[in-house]
Amino acid sequence: MSARKIIIDTDPGQDDAVAILLALASPEEIDVLGITAVAGNVPLNLTSKNARIVCELAGKHDVKVYEGCDRPMGRPLVTAEHVHGKTGLDGPTLPDPVMPVQDQHGVDYIIETLRAHDAGTVTLCPLGPLTNIGTAFTKAPDIIEKVQEIVLMGGAYFEVGNITPAAEFNIYVDPQAADIVFKSGVPIVVMPLDVTHKALVTKPRNDAFRALNTDVGIAVAQMTDFFERFDKEKYGSEGAPLHDPCVTAYLIKPELFSGRHINVEIETQSELTMGMTVADWWGVTGRDANALFVGEVDADGFFSLLKERLARL
Ligand SMILES: [Ca+2]
């Protein structure tokens, strides 16, 4: 089987960084056509810079990184420096990138790439707010039917919210874009907090990254050390959840994950519950399923995959 062609749409973010590293370490399964940065965890100038820092950390200087939207489709930008630090990639000290940003706008890159490929041959992997994807679908509706699948990190049902009591960060930041994506008809796989909160970097798992004793292994251990402080304090859990790598791990080993095909709709009206993923987990609405909403992960399998692949870089 040939490698699956993907575009990673991202707002790094320490967990985005690990997701990108996992993809770049797995060329047999994943062909990263390009990376589009979006404003989210931190503003666009930093997510774009961080995406390039991560490519260079992986030794992949030839990956093309594009800057997409610098703010949500219809709301002011909300960021999350309280989780990820001022740079978005706090933890390790990594050199500024020398790779350039591509001239083309990230949204135009997504449109052009999908138009240039046969229908059903490119997968979109959003790891941040869905602004770039929602904007591309609005600007060029002809590309929607060309997308093979969208595998995204966002939302929650049982875990409800992390940025508000009702909403997960990525969906909350741009609910309008998320609504467009979930109504697009494209097959969607969702990695909500329900599953990412089961992918915890415990002390032994962090030690295993560090023990790789490579630049990548040490940087990943330092990144997870950094945002673990926040999560331990907030949730009292035994380690930080590795949200975004669930997306790229799914592309490599989908058998590590399980969930339900259900209807998911996005709250775009109520300020109280703005960005909530209204997930019909119990099948009470009769509305058509539009997403595979993942609930379980084999965490040991997930971390052994990560360790094995990161060791290659
Ligand atoms: Ca992210």
Description:
This protein has 313 residues and is of the alpha/beta class. Helix content is 37%, strand content 18%. It has twelve helices and twelve strands. It has helices spanning 14-24, 44-57, 81-84, 106-116, 131-139, 169-173, 175-182, 193-196, 203-211, 215-235, 245-252, 299-310; strands at 4-10, 30-37, 65-67, 122-126, 147-153, 188-191, 200-201, 240-241, 257-262, 264-266, 277-279, 291-297. The chain has an eight-stranded mixed β-sheet with strand order 3-2-1-4-5-6-12-9, with helices on both faces. A two-stranded antiparallel sheet has the order 7-8. The model has no long low-confidence stretch (mean pLDDT 96). The structure holds calcium ion (CA). Calcium ion is lined by residues 11, 13, 16, 41, 127-128, 244.
Write a compact overview of the structure shown.
This protein is α/β, with parallel strands linked by helices.
Q: Count of helices?
A: 12
Poorly predicted parts: none
| Helix content class | 25-40%
H-E string: EHEHEHHEHEHHEHEHHEHEEEEH
Task: Characterize the largest beta sheet: strand count, sense, and whether it forms a barrel.
Answer: 8 strands, mixed
Question: What's the overall geometry?
Answer: globular
Strand arrangement within the widest β-sheet reads 3-2-1-4-5-6-12-9
Rg over CA atoms, rounded to whole Å, is 18 Å
